Amino acid sequence: MGTREKQEEIRLLLGRMGWSLRKLADVVTDYESDLEDITLSESSDPTVRYEVIRGHFKRKTTPVEKLDHYLSAIMDHVEYESLKLDHVRPNFVAHDILGEEFSEELVRVSMRVNNP
Question: What residues does each domain of the chain span?
Answer without folding.
Answer: 3-91
